[in-house]
Write a structure and sequence with these properties.
It contains twelve helices and 17 strands. By secondary structure, it is of the alpha/beta class. It has two domains: about 150 residues, NAD(P)-binding Rossmann-like Domain (Rossmann fold); about 220 residues, Dihydrodipicolinate Reductase, domain 2, CATH 3.30.360.10. The chain is globular and about 60 Å long. One of its GO terms (molecular function) is nucleotide binding.
Length: about 450
């Protein structure tokens, strides 16, 4: 295994019998249509519940193990699982035990953001295929290492940007590519979500049943507070990435996909906390601009947390601007177009089945995205993935660049080829992080 994991095992195995040795790499497998795939869900407080439901709806797929540092959540979810599906499910607090289980074929990662990349890399090293929630990475360097790990260990890795499995959104992208609204020069991403004050709970003893050291994993270990566990870590820099790196990853991904661009060369961002004096560290309101001078294209991205207007009827979605009109994507599964200065309604689509295209709901959404992942796992064919690991790096990377511009407080120049800032050591420090011993994202995966 990798040196950081070897050193972790070597230094801690004697001290604690609870430490799990690094899992062995198993060979790639191709499943037949009738072969059952055993899945483990890592992180079950939020999106993990959707993972369980979607996996259990698929043929010949079984959720065999639930994993979370909070045993209280695990035991409650085990009871719910038994009542709903009539079968038992294994429980683990330590994800390394899951990776050591050769009966597990795939893992789905719905942990806090700071765990995503390392959990995915360890899974690849253990021979597991992976579905990882957005954002794929907590920083830009991690995203690159995720790509390298998926390639090196030949694993199927799907990123949780389920709008890529929507027939309507795919049709919309096709219209952009075909020039339906003319040359597309700008994309705007919108994240207008209702986000209340989280107050300030202060510090407190770690509740019984929570392995807080394991919850912290690669990140800075702060005193325990209910302002982190289990949701509001989103708004603290060591663990989350604000709403541009939360809900916003769907929209950053679509901005880049629709414009057909990678990472930008010039970034500026401005915002702050204007509503509440609470424990959040990330900005409540954030406006970022990403410029692509060579392509003559631009991305605008805006996060708002409270009372607001809509834009073209959308609060969460994307607007694309072309020479002939605009194309509006509302949420995950519908779009409209408006042509010319008089805004004549053009083609539209909706996965609900009643739109002009006649598409049926189901192919998009979380379950459809999981179905695409499981199909790729069975065929061991990453080429059919709708949200391949590269989207985890790029969509997350765009959000990270906006956050870095906000934190440095200036316009940044970025080199997408080297994935470093241009002559800016201060900004470069945000490309990675200091990892706790034993939980390092390795330089050589």
């Amino acid at each position: 295994m990798k040196s950081s994991r070897r050193s972790f095992i070597k230094k801690t195995a004697v001290a604690s019998s609870g430490i799990i040795a690094a899992p062995t790499i198993v060979s790639s497998s191709v499943f037949g249509a009738n072969d059952r795939i055993n899945a483990a869900v890592l992180g079950i407080h939020g999106r993990g519940k959707s993972h369980i439901q979607s996996l259990m709806e698929l043929d010949n797929v079984r959720v065999a193990t639930l994993c979370d540092p909070d045993m209280n959540l695990l035991t409650a979810q085990q009871k719910t699982f038994k009542e709903k599906y009539g079968s038992n499910v294994k429980l683990e607090q330590d994800l390394r035990r899951v990776y050591d289980d050769k009966d597990i074929d795939v893992v789905t990662i719905a942990t806090p953001n700071h765990w995503h990349a390392l959990a995915m890399i360890w899974a690849c090293q253990a021979g597991k295929d992976v579905y990882v929630e957005k954002p794929g990475s907590h920083n830009i360097r991690e995203g690159r290492k995720m790509i390298e790990a998926a390639e090196k260990y030949d694993r199927i890795v799907q990123h949780g940007v389920q709008l890529r499995s929507s027939p309507a959104v795919n049709e919309a992208i096709g219209l952009l590519r075909d020039g339906y609204i003319g040359r597309v020069y700008m994309a705007r991403g919108l994240v207008f979500r209702w986000r209340e004050s989280i107050g300030d709970a202060g510090t407190s003893p770690v509740p019984e049943g929570i392995d807080y050291d394991l919850w912290t994993g690669p990140a800075e270990k702060r005193p325990f507070t209910r302002n982190l566990v289990h949701y509001n870590w989103h708004w603290n820099w060591p663990y989350g990435n604000g709403d541009v790196g939360n809900q916003g990853i769907h929209e950053t991904d679509l901005c880049m996909w629709g414009l057909d661009v990678g990472l930008p060369t010039k970034i500026t961002s401005m915002g702050g906390k204007y509503l509440w004096d609470d424990a959040k560290e990330t900005p409540e309101t954030l406006t970022s601009t990403y410029n692509y001078p060579e392509e003559n294209k631009i991305i605008q991205f805006e996060v708002r947390p409270w009372c607001t207007n809509t834009e073209e009827g959308v609060t969460v979605g994307n607007i694309f601007y072309g020479e002939k009109g605009i194309l509006v994507v509302d949420g995950y599964d519908k779009y409209k177009t408006y042509m010319g200065q008089d805004r004549t309604p053009g083609q539209s689509g909706d996965d609900g089945g009643e739109a002009a295209t006649g598409m049926e709901r189901g192919a998009g959404g979380t379950t459809g995205h999981f179905a695409n992942f499981i199909e790729a796992v069975r065929k061991h064919d990453k080429s059919i993935l709708n949200g391949p690991v590269e989207t985890a790096h790029l969509a997350s990377g765009l959000a990270h660049l906006g956050n870095i511009a906000y934190r440095t407080g200036r316009v940044l120049e970025f080199d997408p080829k080297t994935e470093n800032f241009v002559n800016d050591p201060e900004a470069d420090k945000y490309l990675t992080r200091d990892y706790r011993e034993g939980f390092e994202v390795p330089e050589n995966v």
